[in-house]
Amino acid sequence: MHLLSHSRLPMAVFLGLFLLPCVGHAERPMNVDDAGVGAARTGFVQTWFAREPGGGRVWNVASTYVPLTGLEVTATLSRDRTDRLTTTGLEGKFQLTRPQAGGCHHAAALELTHPRGQRGPASFSHGMMTCDVGRGAVHMNLGLFRAPGGPSLPTAGVAWERAFGAVTGYVEWEVQRDEKPTLGMGFRTELAKDIDLGASVGRNGGETLYSIGMKFEF
């Protein structure tokens, strides 16, 4: 199996963490996480294709379930078709304060991912704050990413999200220490009952990124 180079691995694993866990709780295709948690005993499955920094073309699947009020559990699987790298992950998200109109609420999450053929898991822990600002919502993230055997690197992201009729759009900015920031935008809309479509486009260091996928609720 052809594995990622040492120089590319930290960013690739970070993206596996930053993109995959977010699907479990953030509303795809937005990468910045919101502080919301679904209702107890509900869940959804999301699948999408993305072009990531470095040219990777990745298929992703994420399954999320809410066993208890305030707790989401997400299992993830991604397959980088460019580098033939498969990554699995498991994440828990905990709601710390309840949503309130005109105010802010908070959550925290921890995810472990394991690229096949690599020694040990990578970890991504982060806190989230979502604020109702009248004309939409603002989401803010601060976290720490650690690749296997590497240092802990701070991460940050902010997004503004707003519904426009049947379509919800957003703009976002995200960055990790020692990496170039990513600026993106996207939308999601309901195709049918419990089925959503989402797509995004962004820029990172002169590269164009994109994703398209679907969400199935149960």
Written account of the structure:
The chain is 8% helix and 60% strand. The protein has 218 residues and is mainly beta. A 12-stranded antiparallel beta barrel has the order 1-2-3-4-5-6-7-8-9-10-11-12. It starts with 8 loop residues before the first helix and ends with a strand.
What is the CA–CA distance across the termini? 36 Å
Q: What's the total count of β strands?
A: 12
Low-confidence stretches: 1-25
User: Shape, please?
Assistant: globular
What kind of sheet is the major sheet?
12 strands, antiparallel, barrel
Which structural class fits the helix and strand makeup? mainly beta
Structural key phrases:
single chain; 218 residues; mainly beta; 12-stranded antiparallel β-barrel; 1 helix; 8% helix; globular; disordered N terminus
Short structural description:
This protein has 218 residues and is mainly β. It contains 1 helix and 12 strands.
List the helices and strands and how they pair.
Blueprint: H1 9-25, E1 43-51, E2 57-68, E3 71-80, E4 85-95, E5 104-115, E6 122-132, E7 137-146, E8 152-164, E9 167-176, E10 182-192, E11 195-204, E12 207-217
Antiparallel strand pairs: 1-2, 1-12, 2-3, 3-4, 4-5, 5-6, 6-7, 7-8, 8-9, 9-10, 10-11, 11-12
